[in-house]
Records
---
Amino acid sequence: MKIVSVSGNISLQRDIDSGSEEQRKVVLNIIDDVKENRDKALFQYTEKFDHVQLESLLISDEEIKEAYREIDNEIILYIREAADNIRDYHQRQVKQSWMTTDQDGTILGQKITPLDSAGVYVPGGTAAYPSSVLMNVIPAQVAGVQRIAMVSPPQQDGRLPAGVLVAANELGIHEIYKVGGAQAIAALAYGTETITRVDKITGPGNIYVALAKREVFGVVDIDMIAGPSEIVVLADETAKASYVAADLLSQAEHDARASSVLVTPSKLLAEQTALEITNQLEALPRKEIAEASIRDYGAIYVTETLDEAIETVNQLAPEHLEIMTEQPYEIIGKIRHAGSIFLGENSSEPVGDYFAGPNHILPTNGTARFSSPLNVDDFTKKSSIISYSAQSIQMNGSKIAALARLEGLEAHAKSVEQRLGERK
Amino acid sequence: MKIVSVSGNISLQRDIDSGSEEQRKVVLNIIDDVKENRDKALFQYTEKFDHVQLESLLISDEEIKEAYREIDNEIILYIREAADNIRDYHQRQVKQSWMTTDQDGTILGQKITPLDSAGVYVPGGTAAYPSSVLMNVIPAQVAGVQRIAMVSPPQQDGRLPAGVLVAANELGIHEIYKVGGAQAIAALAYGTETITRVDKITGPGNIYVALAKREVFGVVDIDMIAGPSEIVVLADETAKASYVAADLLSQAEHDARASSVLVTPSKLLAEQTALEITNQLEALPRKEIAEASIRDYGAIYVTETLDEAIETVNQLAPEHLEIMTEQPYEIIGKIRHAGSIFLGENSSEPVGDYFAGPNHILPTNGTARFSSPLNVDDFTKKSSIISYSAQSIQMNGSKIAALARLEGLEAHAKSVEQRLGERK
């Protein structure tokens, strides 16, 4: 792994894959087709792209039962415990509606309401993770969303992965459709005979899914466009190189485009970690992927001081940040940008990926500068409440009319003056 | 104004203007040009589109002083009072970071951090409103955003409207640039010699601005893509037709594509309101705009019952909702979708547009189903905090490793087991 001394500006940001014009046209055609031909288009694209002829989009009770036969009972208990932890953490995020009253009779407030419905995209292939089902669905349930629909592309045998079905069923999700790609996003945004449209679509997917989400943004809400995953470890000389290396590799095995970075003022730790990475790589079943990721997107940055290392972390704005220093709590306040912060040597990233409670759907590619882990607020919306009394409009009406006239909006002024006139 | 009896499904939703392919190409070219030629491109596009040759993009102290000479002192006092009200309301939205501790040593939490910087787009022409400056900037300031940059297209005399400059100066905003259109959005997203890039861009604009915001989404965050404005009045037989008509017209004067709708179970109120609209229209300086809006996008829906009227409102999911019924507070709980809710006959929409405190930047075109008024949360982001103790990793490590292996991610399992091995 390459070791680089840094002091100036660096960035993890890879170019956002915004797709080719060709891919965009394909996606626009699929969306138009689904808007027009609805279910029929869904069956056709599923045959074309997933190479399977389905009789029904909706998952049956029998398929759920079959899934349970494939998954170990012990694993099911772990999934339940993880779900409990995730639910507990997210329940602490719930916000209350509030109001404020004034002696002149004015009442102002903010009403918080769950979305009516949400659509969750679960990617297919090797990325079909039961944990992603928990992380997507639970915040929506805690927010109070009444209807949650899940979509996922079928395997060639026409089924969905057993772990995904078990996780969904454990959460009480019954609306599960075997459809993926841009066609699934179009169905969730516009509705078909089988799939009723939703208000918001969350969850990552391939480039066609990302392009489709970007296109339907505004018709429905979407979460962020996900990029490849990344970890930054901030460590000083007290950190164990074997831990640092293992955590960097756990990120690297995800994807050849994943990025694993160590930032440290300790040259010794840098060298030991590089060595450990080479050694630990050998034993990994996904060695090729991890090796390519470390080669192309991995780095060890050595700084002069710990403060410089912290500033480097802020420039990277990583999705996952592990802090393995002598006093990790002294550093939190200086971290301005990070999706999820793991403190101390026992908090390895998989603790948060699966089990601890916080969400693992996180801002990637430097977007932690301005976005957040998926959370309960993402599945609610706010409404302002304004209630003026006769006294408050009498007191303030002429000021409001004057401000309206400054902007040349006479009917605005008159609408207020209607209320004043009668009492003159 | 047309009166329609309704019972089935209705919708305010107009097609989202997603622009032509031609417009999209223009915008992509502008963005590329600004990325490459930076300030030089900004000056060129300003000359081309705004027909003015600037020497400097940054507003000078002299221009601010000049603006103050144009605005009435009384108006400045009203602007200050409005700003105080807006600041007070938004301060009540501020969220605290939190944490939770467990006896096994686990600490979980959520850290809330303001964005480093925000860019505010203030449209030009007749839509250059001082009130929009207050509504855009104050939530960012309350959130704690350190750097706020404002952009707005110059008038042909090379200046910005006095009201806009005064409002900005009252808020202590000094980074004000005379540049608009897609080129301003590109500058805020990618940076130039003069304009440093920001983390988030808010504020409405024309179709080129909307397309540019959509393109840079992901590089920076953006607020919603704004559509034409709308009001729905929900009223029963106790409402005054003259108030209802005046409020519908105050929306209609904004834009020929604005939509003004009355929903009522009272046929009498429907007829009286239609008559009032015809009468009040005559006196309006923006009569042509209001008349076209009422004709093309206005409607009075008459329902059988008040509950049906409420359900119709939910289907419309309006930006502004006025409730003028005998008991408005009994209805709030039934309203699932609305940007801003105005209660009772004294709460006319301009009260919220200018003065009361809640934001006037609201979700349009049915997007109140899933989005919120601009608020303090829009200018902060969250980071999860996960801190496992030696005890908590010992208790849970093997479960986490099992869940990782279920997903085929061996390096994830090993990263946890590194922590268990030593203590065996």
---
Amino acid sequence: MSQRKASADAGPATIRDVAERAGVSVASVSRVLSGNYPVSDDLRRRVMKVVRELDYVTNAHARSLAGGGTPTVAILINHITGAAFAHVAKGVEGAASLRGWLTLVGTTGDDPERELALVNLMRQQGVTAVVLLGGAYDFEEYQLRMARFARSLDAAGSHLVLVGRPPLEGDVPATTVDYDNEGGAYAMASHLLSAGHRRVLVLPGPAELTTAQGRLNGARRAFEAYGVPFPPDMVHHGPYDFEHGLRAVESVLREGSRFTAILAGTDVVAAGAMQALRSAGLRVPEDVSVVGYDDIPLASQLTPKLSTVHVPYEEMGRVALRAVADRREGGGTGRRGGDGAHLILGTHVVVRQSVRPPERQG
Amino acid sequence: MSQRKASADAGPATIRDVAERAGVSVASVSRVLSGNYPVSDDLRRRVMKVVRELDYVTNAHARSLAGGGTPTVAILINHITGAAFAHVAKGVEGAASLRGWLTLVGTTGDDPERELALVNLMRQQGVTAVVLLGGAYDFEEYQLRMARFARSLDAAGSHLVLVGRPPLEGDVPATTVDYDNEGGAYAMASHLLSAGHRRVLVLPGPAELTTAQGRLNGARRAFEAYGVPFPPDMVHHGPYDFEHGLRAVESVLREGSRFTAILAGTDVVAAGAMQALRSAGLRVPEDVSVVGYDDIPLASQLTPKLSTVHVPYEEMGRVALRAVADRREGGGTGRRGGDGAHLILGTHVVVRQSVRPPERQG
């Protein structure tokens, strides 16, 4: 709340000093330093030269780091190579960076022990918040573990945010940012059903994962609403990966089961399913319609472009960061201990080129 | 070097205590806790129950964390959504996890200021090493900045490792893990040339990026070796992304330039190029051959599967971590200040289905 005087003499160099010495505008310096805009090599070189001369960067950060003051958000993610949650992380870090905050990402490898070790480490380092991403496996154990994390972080003045994970039951000091997972699956299945598909192969994902359970429930509700049977032998569980989509479709085709559409649990699973169809000489969407879930960049890079459910992953990340920042700015106001906010973002179907009405009833 | 006694009474719970109480083998507990193997829900529940009862996990990590003892490796990466370097990070964290080390990832958004802030933060936190990933833009400024990082980390008892970046000149305390970038491009271009291609569209990447420069040089050398002209108008620079591959090929097709093959700077650029060809009614590889670079999973998920250059990204990550661990184990032996090791891993062409001899000379 205190105002700072801009002084070019005694204090550390300001962005204005850099701009003056480099003979460019403050906006240009900002563009070079932010790295978010294209700048000419010449401008970049000129500005960075002055930045080094004035030791501007170091000073700017020394001010805040000296007191351990740069707010830092830690994101914990199962695997660094998962596309969907990388976009959540991107959203968090984009919003953090706008505020001058730093972001760190830790990977747990689905290992609860590593997750705990990272949460402990983050607590000791005094991070502003810990954001945990991704579906949860074991509901009961998950609730206990997360409640413990939430309380331990809260006691240390930090805060737990769960993104794309089930909210915590009871009075637990954590914020949940979620998306309408089941609603998206309901809409996607309805899209296939309203195009006339009746025999749909469903590849919802790992049976024990909360997101896959929600996607399967959404699809089942849509079938019920349309009065279409939902035969269990048309549901094949498996990992959220390309290989699973490929193998599942290969095996169903070998068995000779008939279907006119595939409802895949993720875009990556859909990509695998499409490759299996093509290898079997089946065209998408002429012979079989295929839809995915997530709307990662891959979806619009496939041929045909994949109709899918848009999940606002990056927006979820931004919302999570904003929730933390708002909480911090309202700080010290005794909101601790029972806020347990639960924000749910909408999902929607993105219609592209992978769905057509079936030639004849499957 | 000191041996630890396994005691089940006074000291903290051991994995053996957990196994005994849960009535399962030590191997089973290890499988549940590692999260790397499929285990039944029942086994997982049983083991985690005992883990909670004995507070096994907490104890195990409390021991090392109490003294700030868990070695932690920080990886700094430009963008979290880049596939290739996510695999380096995966390699680092896999090798780190095997040793019980933790890994943190920070993203710089191509912003030198954020990079500096993260390196400073890591130095203060006493991380064992900072691993910087990805191509570099401005050679001179890069050398200065990295040398400063290396010395500042070294002074704090940490160590700088550069992966997929140019090595540092002079006596700088840093380790570089690199791959034979130019050699891979030479081999890939030779593969097209030996199939008979003479008019090749080259999309090497951003002109100012060191990796793109290396890939272009490798291709040029191959053309020289085959005595084939390398016309500058067939080289189109642009970002390493799908959109660039798509737009560049669309524009070259519009201009009416003839070519029988495309040498793309990355697999993602190749995917964009393939979509542009398909939209124009051209078949791969019957009408145009296409090759990529990186060998990310996408390459074998495209139709046809993409011939490309395999870069051992994950192995580079493992090698980087091992270099740090070896250094640490040999620690305190005055190897500081001038080790500057430079490890170069090999690359090779992976032949898949996207190359055929041209129908007639282009």
---
Amino acid sequence: MVVMSEGRRLKVALDAFGSDRRPDPEVEAALLAAKDGLALELVGDRAVLDAKLAERGSDRAGLEIVHAPSQISMDASAARAVRAQPDASLCVAVDRLAAREVDAVVSAGNSGALLAAALLRLGRCVGLDRPAIATSLPRADQLDDPAGRTVLLDAGANVECKVLNLVQFAVVGAAYSRIEYGVARPRVAVLANGRESVKGTALTRGAHGILSGHPSDSFEFVGYVEPNELFSARCDVAVTDGWTGNVALKLAEGAMAAWPRMLRAALAEIGSKAPDTEGEAAIAAAIDAGLQLVARHLDPEAHGGAPLLGVDGAVMICHGAAGPRAILNAVIAARRFAERGLTEAIGDALEDHTELFELARKLP
Amino acid sequence: MVVMSEGRRLKVALDAFGSDRRPDPEVEAALLAAKDGLALELVGDRAVLDAKLAERGSDRAGLEIVHAPSQISMDASAARAVRAQPDASLCVAVDRLAAREVDAVVSAGNSGALLAAALLRLGRCVGLDRPAIATSLPRADQLDDPAGRTVLLDAGANVECKVLNLVQFAVVGAAYSRIEYGVARPRVAVLANGRESVKGTALTRGAHGILSGHPSDSFEFVGYVEPNELFSARCDVAVTDGWTGNVALKLAEGAMAAWPRMLRAALAEIGSKAPDTEGEAAIAAAIDAGLQLVARHLDPEAHGGAPLLGVDGAVMICHGAAGPRAILNAVIAARRFAERGLTEAIGDALEDHTELFELARKLP
């Protein structure tokens, strides 16, 4: 278990060569973090990073660089790349956490490679078979409430899952909801294509059977949740396999991005029929403000990337398209992850549910 | 094969006891259809329907009733219910099509039961293993174009699928895109969690391999499509298993419904800070108009329900929550389905691709 060094400020290692536009967004985020007094080290090619920082001519505010000469590409085969390139920025960043030189890691790189590196270098929490990526969806009626979000996992770490994995995701997700959103006894559901327990697949029915038959003190199992209910307060945690979770996440992103474009098109159509220039401008301005506000609430990156739950340390994944603000928010979230002892809380929760896992292990 | 009787107007059988609020939305839809001169028969309990129609006191406009004394509930086990209740409204409606007394069937009832009844009473198109439910998603930049929609199938008929099913969905979906939306050579994609062919599951990779290795004259295979791309013009047809398709559809519905609520909340927040009552009212009115316009374009029911593709006859499924307008639109779509010979076109397309299916049949 990664233990915080006493008397030292919490420090985050940021993979400087993860994002699609690397390393610019990372450098920018690091400077913003340093300005805010956050302890951070930038991991990547020292010459490039030094040049980038010199270019900016700004105060480096004590920003450290840890040298890592190579980079893992977005389309590389994850496990192979991690083994072949131990000196890649992503691997070195994870090494820093494994060596307890830092307290958390953030990368906007190849998420499969980050998972592989974390498994190889940090290992899993005791008793867990598969870590999961957790994402948080906004709720339509709780936009203003930072805690009013539904945790969905696995959002893509494990394309194929067994009943045991889903049951463990329930336990791990509940610990995350408790620590991150302050929900004392999270309501956990299994994502399915209907509310009735006969719905779903062999996988979901297996998980439903185990979770409904063996109540836990630390979370309340509320049965199946349908995909359209994820944007409401019907449950705090929804568990699914990484294939379905990834489809759900990307579809939500697509729908959320399509909507404002549709509204603008519709308003342009209306506007063209009622040519009142002044009124139109006011309406357009108000809608822009509204759209921006909604976008701010919706932006998954504003909430600090997606944590990789169940590896032995605080690891946060950013979107490849992440910009400086998104990466900065992920750094802040990763720091909070370490500060609040999420890894330890997950370890404890796993230990409390070993009997449940033994039952689940008997199912396919 | 269901053949249109010559010299007779196309007629639709409407299950009067399908929807959640049955039979009121169905009766209302039937009256609207009759007023529009559409030939339609209402299938259900004659006494109840007569009373409903008498209550309305309106001109029945030649509306026929076909008696069916019982009903299948929404949560009934589909196959069992269809066998146990041959006199249920849903079964009798399908019987009318099997007997060629009508040219198409519409039901807002239990979709599993409708599928089971169609399989049992109409059978499948020759050469097809599994029929699929097709749904159409709007594209952000083509709201005004009725043909600018992406066909997604299977949206829920087959929770578990083999490679053969996905390959057949590609052929069937392309035929639908051609007939319904006039796309001469539809671009077909397999839904996956990334664009690269190494992504996905054994199922998607199997379908990708078959479709990319054996080009068809009637459609263009364009590889994988990601869920967030479904709201764009990246492909005309996206194929997936019924589990994933159902999750995608319900998630899209949920996200699309959540968005306007989020915008209203955001605007209320902005409005409360700038209390200009008159301007606010104008803005609210414009946004309402815009939202309504978007909703009209988005509403899956406005586009006439979801066709069940690959059974031997025109069968259209409505949402259980469907109202009169949605059901009327489904009746119009079902009529068009029969008129344009969609079933025959699907049969021809299947016959043209038997070699492809033989290859796919060797994969799991």
---
Amino acid sequence: MTIGRSEQVALTRGLLLRTAERMFAEEGISTVSNRRISEAAGQGNNFAVGYHFGGKLELLRAILGHHNAAIEPLRRTMLSDLGPEMGMREWISCLVRPQTDYLRSLGTPTYFARFCAQITTDPKYGPLLYEQKDVSEELITVLTGMYAALPSLPPSVLEIRDTMARNMIVLTLADHERACAAGEASRTWEDIGEQLVDALIGVWLAPVTNE
Amino acid sequence: MTIGRSEQVALTRGLLLRTAERMFAEEGISTVSNRRISEAAGQGNNFAVGYHFGGKLELLRAILGHHNAAIEPLRRTMLSDLGPEMGMREWISCLVRPQTDYLRSLGTPTYFARFCAQITTDPKYGPLLYEQKDVSEELITVLTGMYAALPSLPPSVLEIRDTMARNMIVLTLADHERACAAGEASRTWEDIGEQLVDALIGVWLAPVTNE
């Protein structure tokens, strides 16, 4: 049995995606060149990343898109399970739990959470992490519902707490993923999700001293 | 007037520190080689970092040590100003405000907050950020006081919220520093400090759902 041309292309693309994600997660985004990814993926052609994705920006988008596409159905299921009566805790859970459920479903080690943490602190590619929300209908539903369920906050406080909340999710998931990969995790993904939801509620409900 | 040998060494060392901090902050820790730092600092000898610091680990420690030594007196002053009647808010302020006051005192642009954010997500050097606390008496006083003022939490919840709180401080300061450097900051360092203290109180006071 021979593999057709389009299957070969899909296999190579998947191999490059997984290799790049692992290298980015472990070494940082800027450190890893397209050439090194191509080499590590065993591609004779050092320009394989350029050929298959166009460039690093498109490669990063493809990695994010791949995972977000898998998280969306989990978010949709959770939204429909919870029904119409949703408070702040339920909305925040719909933001966090599909991510922890997804990471758990992949087994150990995963690299996606550390990959996201690397993007977050990358001066050049940082904004990428949140442009994807524009294309996920479920995420827009969750964020809209969550903002409506929050206590009334001055816009500038809402904005900074939103950034704090996002950073908290990204770095907490990355810390746990690192602990899992090192065999040092004392918690489950499910528990990490619960701890995050509790803390995020604290961030959103915290009284505002000055504005 | 000629510059003596020891002054020359101190000048070169200071120049390497500032150059390295800026490059690490803007590009990440692993991306930047000792050779590139030496070159960017205009050192004819490409091994200047090795000669003056020993290696990257010692260089990172020297950058952290330089700033922490300057933050300590601010922490000491704040502790003595606040007097003996301190609650959770005052202790958390003693953790946050000396950092924001220090960053403000440096003028714009600063690099230290982004440098800390880069270390935080660096798989190899991440733990460096918190080993320094062992040598600052003021920071130990603040952390001891803060932990004693917190509501009673199961040890494992205390641990994860501690990590969340640290990450929140580091990334929020880095985000603001980046906005300042880009001329896009809509807040002051003082206000960032207040927003952080409010949100951190929320994290620590959030009820625990499951343990």
